[in-house]
Design brief:
This protein is mostly helical. It contains 5 helices and 2 strands, in the order βαααααβ. It is rod-shaped, with a radius of gyration of 31 Å. It starts with a strand and ends in an 8-residue tail after the last strand.
Length: 231
């Protein structure tokens, strides 16, 4: 005998419930094998679940779209920061800037190497340090670094920083809506099981093949084990 198995995707869950509801709607009242209580509950939960899934999909798509732009912002700030730090180091090597000034940027132990800028958090941290360091050095009478100027770095940093926190908001929204979907799945699965059980109980005395075909009309999905055939 084949066995039934609950849907394993949200779209499949929605399809299973809609199939059962549609079958009940298109069947004479006296021939409907699902109780009115179960059918009413199924209609309520499918509407809510579809709405939750739609909200999750929308927030996820917004996050993906925003992330494409954010990746460009990451690339720009990493390039400008790296270039600025390299020019700063070269200026120290040429003795145009005193080596002790590196402490203003947090680079006193850098060994003339660009610090780790691989993560967004590192970019936030080092961008802030470099901007404050250059502003402080200039305020103390130092000659500004050019190509790139700190003004250009500030622009790229500001754009990146805004993008970073915007992306954090998108990620939290996506995570929250995804959590809503996950929490609601158990209720969806519960009503699917209840509905399927009522259908199978109603058709239990039918011949195997006829019973399976009747049950399938309500969206029940059956699987056959390897080598298994209908008796």
């Amino acid at each position: 005998m084949p066995y039934r198995r609950l849907p394993n995707t949200d779209n499949a869950r929605i399809k299973a419930l809609k199939t059962a509801i549609r079958k009940c709607s298109n069947t004479n009242f006296n021939e409907v094998v699902v109780s009115m209580k179960t059918l009413y509950r199924a209609r309520l939960v499918i509407e809510k679940f579809e709405r939750i899934c739609d909200i999750y999909q929308q927030t996820f798509e917004i996050q993906i779209k925003a992330n494409k732009s954010f990746q460009s912002q990451i690339k720009n700030i990493r390039m400008y920061l790296s270039h600025f730090i390299q020019v700063l180091h070269l200026s120290v090597i040429r003795e145009e800037i005193k080596s002790e000034n590196l402490s203003m940027y947090g680079l006193e132990e850098s060994n003339m190497q660009v610090p780790d800028l691989t993560s967004n958090e590192m970019l936030l941290d080092w961008g802030n340090k470099i901007i404050k360091g250059e502003d402080k050095r200039i305020a103390n009478g130092g000659v500004p670094i050019y190509n790139p100027t700190i003004a250009k770095v500030k622009v790229m940093y500001s754009i990146f920083k805004d993008g970073y926190y915007t992306q954090q908001i998108h990620q939290k929204a996506t995570s929250r809506t995804q959590s809503d979907v996950v929490k609601f799945r158990s209720e969806i699965d519960e009503i699917i099981l209840q509905l399927w059980q009522e259908v199978e109980d109603a058709n239990v005395n039918l011949p195997t093949q006829e019973r399976i075909e009747k049950n399938k009309e309500y969206g029940i999905i059956y699987y056959y084990r390897k080598g298994e055939t209908i008796e």
